[in-house]
Structure formats: C-alpha cells, structure tokens
C-alpha cells in the first residue's frame, strides 16, 4: 500500500540548512496561521460561559438514534461492528506493510476512527444500560407511591437517592458526550481529507513506480468514510461549524510530528508535498490547509441533507428538531 509510496531523499533533512530557507518559513507560516485561527475559534465558542458550549451538552445525544422509534441497541451494534472492521483493517494493513505506515496520515486517521467507534460503543453501552436502570428505578418510585413496593416511610428517601443518581449520571454522560462530539467532528473531517486527497490527488495524478493497488488499499481509503456516514445517518450528534478547529489541529499535530522526525532522522517523506525543499512546497502546504474547508463542508452538507430528509419524512419521531 502506502509503504510503496516512499519518496527518495531530496536532501539531508537533519542539516540545519535544510530548515533555514524561505520555503520552510512560508510552510511554517501556513501551520502557524492554522493554529491561530483554530485557537481563536475554540476560545470564542468553547468558553465555559458561552451558550454554544452549553447547547452542546444534551445528555443522550451520544448514544440515542435520531429517530424515536429506533432502539439504541441498533446504533450500539453498528458501532461495535464498525469498530471491529476498522480495527481489523488497521491490523491487517500494519501486518502486511510494516510499522512504517504510521508515518502516513491515512494510518493516523484509521487510528482516530478506531478510537471514535470504540468510544461510541462504550457510550452506547453505558447509555443503554443506564437508561434501563433509570427506567427500573422510575418504576420502583411509581410502585412505592402506590404502596406496592416498600413501606411509605422509605419512599421519600429512595426517590431522593434515585433522583440524585439520575442527575449525577446525566451530568457525567453530558461531559463525555461533549468530548465525544468533538471526536466525532474531528474524525469526520480527517476521514474526508484522507480519502479525498488519496482518490482525487494521489491516485490519479501521482506517478509512483511499483505502486501496489490491492483490495486492502481500497479498504483503508474507503471503509472509514462509509462507516462514518452510516453512523452519522443514525446518530443524534450535531455538526457546528466552529469545531473544524479540532480537525485542523489534528492535521497540524501530524505535520509537526513529521517535521520533528525528519529533523532528527534522515528518512523519506510519506507524501511528496510534505518535503519543504520540493518545488512549490509552500503552495502545497497552503492548498492542504485550505482544503480542510471543503472537506469539512462536504460532511456538514451530508448532515444538513440528513436533517432535511428526516424532518420531512419523520416529523413526529425525528429527535434533532431543536
């Protein structure tokens, strides 16, 4: 797969002269600008006193399907199956092509997608069993009030305990659900960028000798997007625009990782346009930075389309009509 995409050295990246160039300065400027913009968005919209953050803390969004008639078990089952498929594809890819794959953004995206579906599976399981537990506790309260379960002198105490427990679980689940929503949007953007760049830029235009196009190559550049779209079609998570900042920071972290590695080890670049000494390298860096916008917008368009269709086909059972 991508291990056959190794690019020959253009120069020794461990030398200081390699980095002290105007080309690297422009590349660094693109990364620095991305960090500044992302930080401003996070500071503006994720502040503790901001209504947008409070608006994103609804309990149940992390594990409830978007339709009332659809059991959370279906979403949980989908996430568990998706996690197994992504994990299997990642292990098979590394076993076939070696640990050098971790130099590639594709592998980073696969890891992020695996974390998302593992995280989602755990939240779905916890949410489903918590909901069942609260339902049982609620039934006990009803029976107590009717005098069918325990003596009346214990009813007030048990009801207070049940309400406190429900409140605690709701607050905890809301915080984890908030983190999960961030991971969701970061993964969605990374998946769109990975698959989009591969199929629209690398595959048709980049001539690589002895390149291996196998079934596994197609899987690791397609399965993540298919599973993310399937999960999005079922879940209740929203897609606020400002969280593109986390997606950008994920890519920035990858680029800085590559720079640090190449500053200490004279090795090949996983993608030719990452080589800061390559012709038009600054242009490539700025293009990839700008490419985050349409990639994120395409996924946001899918979410908007889902809202449009579901709200008209299922106006009485669609949950995301707030």
Properties at a glance:
single chain, 322 residues, mainly alpha, 10 helices, 0% strand, disordered N terminus
How would you characterize the overall build of this protein?
The chain has 322 residues and is an all-alpha fold. It has one domain (2-313). The protein has helices spanning 16-19, 22-45, 51-55, 72-97, 105-145, 155-205, 215-220, 223-234, 244-264, 281-313. The chain is globular and about 65 Å long.
Overview in brief:
The protein is mainly alpha-helical. The protein has one domain (2-313).
The shape, in one word, is: globular
Mean pLDDT: 81
Count of distinct strands = 0
Relative helix content: 55-70%
Radius of gyration: 24 Å
**Which structural class best describes the helix and strand composition?**
mainly alpha
Gap between N and C termini? 44 Å
The stretches of 5 or more residues where confidence is low (pLDDT under 50) are: 1-8, 134-169
Number of domains: 1
Biggest β-sheet description:
none
Number of helices: 10
Strand content: under 5%
What pattern of helices and strands is seen along the backbone? Answer: HHHHHHHHHH
Helix/strand layout:
Blueprint: H1 16-19, H2 22-45, H3 51-55, H4 72-97, H5 105-145, H6 155-205, H7 215-220, H8 223-234, H9 244-264, H10 281-313
